[in-house]
Design brief:
Layout (H helix, E strand, L loop, with lengths): L1 E6 L2 E4 L4 E9 L3 E10 L6 E6 L5 E3 L7 E6 L4 E6 L8 E11 L2 E6 L3 E6 L1
Parallel strand pairs: 2-11
Antiparallel strand pairs: 1-3, 3-8, 4-5, 4-9, 5-6, 7-8, 9-10, 9-11
Amino acid sequence: QVQLVESGGGLVQAGGSLRLSCAASGNIFSINDMGWYRQAPGKQRELVAAITRGGSTDYVDSVKGRFTISRDNALNTVYLQMNSLKPEDTGAYFCNANVIWVGREYPYWGQGTQVTVSS
């Protein structure tokens, strides 16, 4: 089994910053793609940012230039630095990791951390 533990969410004013962290532990040989998703009330979960094991990144257009995803492969941890936050960034943020174990890949999700941006 693998656990993903997120931290770093909270309440911030528009224009502020937050840094999310997600640490994976358990039966892990390696981790391929990792990502951050968010879900606002009444909306579908959407991919915000993703990063490959080699460090290639991708972002949804609405966060480009404001958010930065990074990872530490030695610590099995992914980060999301969020700057210039806007009220529309409000939602529950979930991390996702594609974990390699005994030659197979398994997707895992964190429990979510709430980000609230006030105007």
